[in-house]
């Protein structure tokens, strides 16, 4: 990624803070201009003392002290404060833009890349930009001030000015060679760090399975390899950076020595002054400090480039395109569903999961889809939710292509309850409020009563303010499913999909939930995927799938009479 592209990418985020940038620039410029006078006044004061005008020399030093205090208390402090706050606001804008963009990525993005990589891009990569932006503003101002100092140097000694130019050329050549290698190392570190975050995230979220399987040692061993590789690369980078800084410091000290020898030589030859020598004793170290700051920024900038590239890939759709929704807005659907000649295969597998698939579900009916594993049952739900789009054919909702609906209509009209539902690491009440911020506790309790969960929740010390833990770890499998059912009901979706949603319930609770499903099906379209056929025997229609096709349809009694596959499934999975 070229420098021009990096600045073009950052420009929209920086422009939002142009007023603050202007203030920071003005204060920094004044601070730098005042700072420029220190060396000059110090040299002038010493020259006055040498000329026996002691009082004038003291007055100049007092003036220097006053300007220094004024600069520290007002201009330098304000410029640092404003520029720091600016960098935080810029990174805040980038972070939220990136986060919103990640939420719009297609489902395949989260299959191809780990959650740890996206977390890293949102957090660590965004954070990398903060210090770089703050330093960039500082260096830009200091370079401007240094340019003015350079003309002062040029006025006093063309030889010293030439030495400054040669020093800068040497630094440029060294930095260019160093930065190419550093950028490559930073890319390797970022990738290794993605693996590290993903591994830790997965291990912590799956702590129950880790303990149940007794694989603590295996997990730790695998993580140790990742961490070892990561820190080996970091050690290599640090060593490389230290060598770079050592080279820069050596050249800097050589530069200072040559400058002093040149000025002293000019004084001996009668072409120089002690005032210039004293002024340069300040300026040269000030200049060297800027060079060191620039050297540090140089290493930061390579990290910045890698981070910006990774963020840019997401925000500008270089890796994946956003899901494109239509313009049809309908929050009061009838609830009919039609699959018309649908063929579908996943992007990395050309084998069709569904092929010339047709299905019609009427509104306010209760439909079940059954079949052996791998026959395309879950794919139907994935297409209905637009996690994926049909390769060929159409999926219709109320006679309108599902990809013509806007996102709000699609998400509000369809809810899904999974075998292992995802619950947020918040309180029970907050898990409902994240769906509907205006929902009341009374309403939440009503839905939990329907899902046969209210009695249990009211026995908890904090009741509905109980935090359920990450992934609902503090709830049993059945309680998680019932909570998910209650949450889906609170959403008031016309279409409700049940994906093995009663699998973790005991027989008594399952029967009660079936009664709930029967009741809500009067006003909702219900589609259920089930292996336990006892849960779907009273469905209005049962569709038997095999090899991506519906091979038989009917009621439980009808299929039990005429279909041998259904008879076997019912016998083995009742």
Report on the structure:
With 574 residues, the chain is of the alpha/beta class. The chain is 65% helix and 10% strand. The strands form 2 sheets. Strands 6-7-8-3-9-10 form a 6-stranded mixed β-sheet, sandwiched between helices.
From the spread of the alpha carbons, the general shape counts as: elongated
Distance between the termini: 60 Å
Strand order of the largest sheet: 6-7-8-3-9-10
Our estimate of the beta-strand percent is 5-15%
Determine the fraction of residues in helical runs and give it as a percent range: 55-70%
Number of helices: 18
How would a crystallographer describe the biggest sheet? 6 strands, mixed
- Give the overall average pLDDT: 82
Order of helices and strands: HHHHHHHHHEEEHEEHEHHHHEHEEEHH
Structural class, please? alpha/beta
Q: Which regions are unreliable across 5 or more consecutive residues at pLDDT < 50? A: none
Radius of gyration: 35 Å
Number of strands: 10
């Amino acid at each position: 990624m070229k420098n021009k592209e990096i600045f073009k990418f950052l420009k929209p985020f920086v422009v939002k803070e142009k007023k603050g940038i202007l203030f920071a620039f003005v204060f920094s410029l004044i601070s730098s201009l005042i700072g420029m006078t220190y060396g000059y006044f110090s040299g002038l004061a010493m020259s006055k003392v040498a000329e026996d005008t002691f009082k004038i020399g003291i007055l100049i030093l007092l003036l220097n002290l006053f300007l220094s205090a004024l600069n520290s208390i007002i201009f330098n402090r304000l410029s640092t404060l404003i520029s720091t706050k600016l960098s935080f606001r810029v990174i805040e804008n980038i972070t939220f833009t990136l986060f919103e963009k990640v939420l719009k990525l297609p489902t395949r993005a989260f299959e191809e890349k780990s959650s740890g990589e996206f977390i890293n891009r949102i957090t660590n990569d965004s954070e990398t930009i903060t210090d770089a932006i703050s330093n960039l503003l500082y260096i830009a101002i200091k370079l401007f001030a240094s340019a003015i100092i350079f003309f002062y140097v040029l006025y006093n000694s063309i030889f010293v000015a030439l030495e400054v130019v040669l020093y800068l050329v040497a630094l440029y050549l060294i930095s260019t060679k160093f930065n190419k290698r550093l950028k490559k190392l930073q890319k390797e570190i970022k990738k290794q760090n993605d693996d590290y975050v993903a591994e830790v995230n997965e291990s912590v979220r799956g702590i129950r399975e880790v303990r149940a399987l007794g694989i603590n040692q295996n997990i730790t061993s695998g993580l140790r390899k990742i961490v070892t590789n990561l820190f080996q690369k970091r050690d290599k980078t640090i060593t490389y950076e230290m060598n770079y800084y050592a080279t820069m410091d050596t050249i800097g000290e050589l530069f200072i020595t040559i400058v002093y020898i040149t000025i002293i030589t000019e004084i001996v030859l009668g072409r120089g002054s002690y005032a210039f020598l004293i002024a340069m004793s300040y300026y040269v170290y000030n200049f060297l400090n800027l060079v060191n700051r620039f050297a540090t920024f140089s290493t930061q900038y390579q990290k910045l480039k890698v981070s910006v590239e990774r963020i840019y890939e997401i925000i500008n759709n270089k890796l994946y395109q956003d899901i494109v929704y239509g313009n049809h807005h309908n929050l009061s659907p009838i609830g009919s569903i039609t699959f018309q000649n649908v063929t579908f295969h996943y992007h990395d597998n050309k084998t069709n999961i569904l092929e010339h698939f047709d299905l019609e579900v009427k509104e306010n009916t209760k439909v079940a889809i059954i079949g052996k594993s791998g026959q395309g049952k879950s794919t139907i739900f994935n297409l209905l939710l637009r996690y994926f789009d049909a390769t060929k054919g159409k999926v219709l909702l109320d006679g309108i292509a599902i990809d013509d609906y806007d996102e709000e209509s699609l998400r509000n009209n369809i809810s899904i309850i999974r075998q292992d539902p995802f619950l947020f690491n918040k309180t029970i009440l907050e898990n409902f409020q994240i769906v509907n911020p205006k929902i009341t506790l009374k309403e939440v309790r009503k839905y939990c009563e329907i899902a046969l969960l209210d009695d249990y929740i009211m026995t908890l010390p904090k009741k509905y303010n109980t935090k359920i833990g990450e992934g609902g770890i503090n709830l049993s499998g059945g309680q998680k499913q019932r909570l998910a059912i209650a949450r889906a009901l609170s959403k008031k979706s016309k279409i409700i999909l049940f994906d093995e949603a009663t699998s973790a319930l005991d027989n008594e609770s399952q029967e009660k939930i079936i009664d709930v499903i029967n009741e809500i099906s009067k006003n909702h379209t219900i589609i259920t995927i089930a292996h336990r056929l006892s849960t779907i025997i009273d469905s209005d229609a049962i569709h038997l799938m095999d090899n991506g096709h519906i091979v038989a349809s009917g009621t439980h009694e009808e299929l039990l009479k005429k279909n041998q596959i259904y008879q076997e499934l019912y016998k083995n999975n009742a």
